[in-house]
Design goal:
Lipoprotein, eleven-stranded antiparallel sheet, 1 helix, 169 residues
Length: 169
Protein backbone atom coordinates (compact mmCIF):
# COMPACT_ATOMS: atom_id res chain seq x y z
CA UNK A 1 0.00 0.00 0.00
CA UNK A 2 1.40 3.37 -0.97
CA UNK A 3 2.05 6.07 1.62
CA UNK A 4 -0.63 8.33 0.18
CA UNK A 5 -3.20 5.53 0.23
CA UNK A 6 -2.18 4.64 3.80
CA UNK A 7 -2.65 8.32 4.85
CA UNK A 8 -6.06 8.41 3.20
CA UNK A 9 -7.14 5.23 5.02
CA UNK A 10 -5.87 6.61 8.34
CA UNK A 11 -7.73 9.89 7.77
CA UNK A 12 -10.97 8.06 6.97
CA UNK A 13 -10.60 5.70 9.94
CA UNK A 14 -9.64 8.65 12.19
CA UNK A 15 -12.64 10.68 11.01
CA UNK A 16 -14.95 7.75 11.66
CA UNK A 17 -13.48 7.27 15.12
CA UNK A 18 -13.93 10.95 15.99
CA UNK A 19 -17.49 10.87 14.67
CA UNK A 20 -18.24 7.72 16.60
CA UNK A 21 -16.86 9.22 19.80
CA UNK A 22 -18.94 12.33 19.25
CA UNK A 23 -22.04 10.18 18.81
CA UNK A 24 -21.20 8.28 21.99
CA UNK A 25 -20.90 11.42 24.09
CA UNK A 26 -24.14 12.94 22.88
CA UNK A 27 -26.81 12.50 25.57
CA UNK A 28 -24.38 11.47 28.32
CA UNK A 29 -23.73 13.05 31.72
CA UNK A 30 -21.39 15.52 30.03
CA UNK A 31 -24.34 17.23 28.37
CA UNK A 32 -27.43 16.04 30.23
CA UNK A 33 -28.07 16.91 33.90
CA UNK A 34 -28.42 14.07 36.35
CA UNK A 35 -32.02 13.76 37.44
CA UNK A 36 -31.21 12.89 41.05
CA UNK A 37 -28.20 12.39 43.30
CA UNK A 38 -28.54 10.86 46.77
CA UNK A 39 -25.63 11.19 49.18
CA UNK A 40 -25.25 11.58 52.96
CA UNK A 41 -22.50 14.18 52.65
CA UNK A 42 -21.15 16.42 49.90
CA UNK A 43 -17.91 18.37 50.35
CA UNK A 44 -16.94 21.34 48.20
CA UNK A 45 -13.17 21.74 48.41
CA UNK A 46 -10.85 24.65 47.68
CA UNK A 47 -7.85 24.55 45.35
CA UNK A 48 -5.82 22.85 48.13
CA UNK A 49 -8.34 20.05 48.62
CA UNK A 50 -9.62 21.46 51.95
CA UNK A 51 -13.38 21.14 52.48
CA UNK A 52 -14.80 24.69 52.70
CA UNK A 53 -18.50 23.94 52.30
CA UNK A 54 -20.19 20.76 53.43
CA UNK A 55 -23.76 19.63 52.96
CA UNK A 56 -24.63 16.78 55.27
CA UNK A 57 -27.44 14.76 56.77
CA UNK A 58 -26.28 14.48 59.47
CA UNK A 59 -23.52 17.07 59.68
CA UNK A 60 -20.30 15.79 61.22
CA UNK A 61 -19.02 17.32 64.46
CA UNK A 62 -16.83 20.41 64.11
CA UNK A 63 -13.08 19.84 64.64
CA UNK A 64 -12.37 19.17 68.31
CA UNK A 65 -16.03 19.42 69.38
CA UNK A 66 -18.98 17.08 69.86
CA UNK A 67 -22.48 18.15 68.84
CA UNK A 68 -25.03 17.72 71.61
CA UNK A 69 -27.74 16.96 69.04
CA UNK A 70 -27.90 15.76 65.44
CA UNK A 71 -28.00 18.55 62.86
CA UNK A 72 -28.52 18.50 59.10
CA UNK A 73 -27.64 21.34 56.76
CA UNK A 74 -24.63 23.24 55.44
CA UNK A 75 -21.32 23.89 57.24
CA UNK A 76 -18.98 26.72 56.27
CA UNK A 77 -15.28 26.10 57.04
CA UNK A 78 -12.16 28.27 57.08
CA UNK A 79 -8.96 27.34 55.19
CA UNK A 80 -7.90 25.00 58.03
CA UNK A 81 -11.22 23.12 58.01
CA UNK A 82 -12.56 24.70 61.22
CA UNK A 83 -16.32 25.32 61.18
CA UNK A 84 -17.06 29.06 61.01
CA UNK A 85 -20.79 28.99 60.45
CA UNK A 86 -23.65 27.18 58.92
CA UNK A 87 -27.26 26.73 58.04
CA UNK A 88 -28.68 23.99 60.21
CA UNK A 89 -31.89 22.18 60.99
CA UNK A 90 -32.18 20.31 64.27
CA UNK A 91 -35.32 18.23 64.21
CA UNK A 92 -35.19 17.22 67.88
CA UNK A 93 -35.35 20.91 68.91
CA UNK A 94 -37.64 22.13 66.09
CA UNK A 95 -34.79 24.52 65.17
CA UNK A 96 -33.74 26.12 61.89
CA UNK A 97 -30.93 28.64 61.93
CA UNK A 98 -28.18 30.49 60.11
CA UNK A 99 -25.19 31.24 62.34
CA UNK A 100 -21.68 32.64 61.90
CA UNK A 101 -18.94 31.89 64.41
CA UNK A 102 -16.21 34.12 65.80
CA UNK A 103 -12.57 33.12 65.47
CA UNK A 104 -12.78 32.08 69.15
CA UNK A 105 -15.46 29.52 68.28
CA UNK A 106 -18.71 30.95 69.64
CA UNK A 107 -21.76 31.80 67.54
CA UNK A 108 -21.29 35.55 67.07
CA UNK A 109 -24.50 36.05 65.14
CA UNK A 110 -27.37 33.65 64.86
CA UNK A 111 -30.72 34.09 63.14
CA UNK A 112 -33.06 31.27 63.99
CA UNK A 113 -36.57 29.92 64.21
CA UNK A 114 -37.06 27.66 67.21
CA UNK A 115 -40.49 26.18 67.85
CA UNK A 116 -41.91 28.82 65.49
CA UNK A 117 -40.38 31.65 67.59
CA UNK A 118 -38.01 33.89 65.50
CA UNK A 119 -34.82 35.13 67.16
CA UNK A 120 -31.66 37.04 66.28
CA UNK A 121 -28.81 36.92 68.79
CA UNK A 122 -25.58 38.92 68.63
CA UNK A 123 -22.72 37.83 70.90
CA UNK A 124 -19.36 39.37 71.74
CA UNK A 125 -16.67 37.78 73.93
CA UNK A 126 -18.93 34.72 74.41
CA UNK A 127 -21.71 36.90 75.94
CA UNK A 128 -25.14 37.66 74.49
CA UNK A 129 -25.22 41.42 73.85
CA UNK A 130 -28.33 41.98 71.72
CA UNK A 131 -31.35 39.70 71.43
CA UNK A 132 -34.22 40.45 69.07
CA UNK A 133 -37.15 38.10 68.93
CA UNK A 134 -40.81 37.27 69.11
CA UNK A 135 -41.91 34.89 71.85
CA UNK A 136 -45.56 34.00 72.46
CA UNK A 137 -46.63 37.00 70.39
CA UNK A 138 -44.41 39.50 72.27
CA UNK A 139 -41.78 41.26 70.15
CA UNK A 140 -38.72 42.29 72.14
CA UNK A 141 -35.27 43.82 71.96
CA UNK A 142 -32.93 43.22 74.89
CA UNK A 143 -29.60 45.03 75.28
CA UNK A 144 -27.05 43.44 77.61
CA UNK A 145 -23.82 44.75 79.12
CA UNK A 146 -20.39 43.19 78.43
CA UNK A 147 -21.05 40.53 81.07
CA UNK A 148 -24.32 39.50 79.41
CA UNK A 149 -26.59 41.12 82.01
CA UNK A 150 -29.74 42.81 80.62
CA UNK A 151 -29.88 46.61 80.91
CA UNK A 152 -32.70 47.62 78.59
CA UNK A 153 -35.75 45.68 77.41
CA UNK A 154 -38.23 46.99 74.81
CA UNK A 155 -41.41 44.99 74.25
CA UNK A 156 -44.61 45.22 72.23
CA UNK A 157 -47.23 42.54 72.90
CA UNK A 158 -49.67 41.08 70.37
CA UNK A 159 -52.31 43.67 71.41
CA UNK A 160 -49.94 46.61 70.77
CA UNK A 161 -49.16 47.28 74.44
CA UNK A 162 -45.65 48.74 74.75
CA UNK A 163 -43.25 48.31 77.62
CA UNK A 164 -39.81 49.85 78.12
CA UNK A 165 -37.86 48.48 81.02
CA UNK A 166 -34.49 49.70 82.26
CA UNK A 167 -33.30 46.62 84.06
CA UNK A 168 -29.68 47.66 84.58
CA UNK A 169 -28.06 48.79 87.79
Amino acid sequence: MSNSLRRLVLMVVGSCAVSALGACTRGTAATQPTESLSVRELNIVDEHGQARLRIGAPLPDPKGLKRAVTAVGIQFMDPSGQEIGGLAMIDSLDFRGLCFDSKEGYEAICMSLMKEQPNITLRHDWKERIIIGVENGVASVVLNDAQGNPHLRLEVDKDGKTRVEGVGK
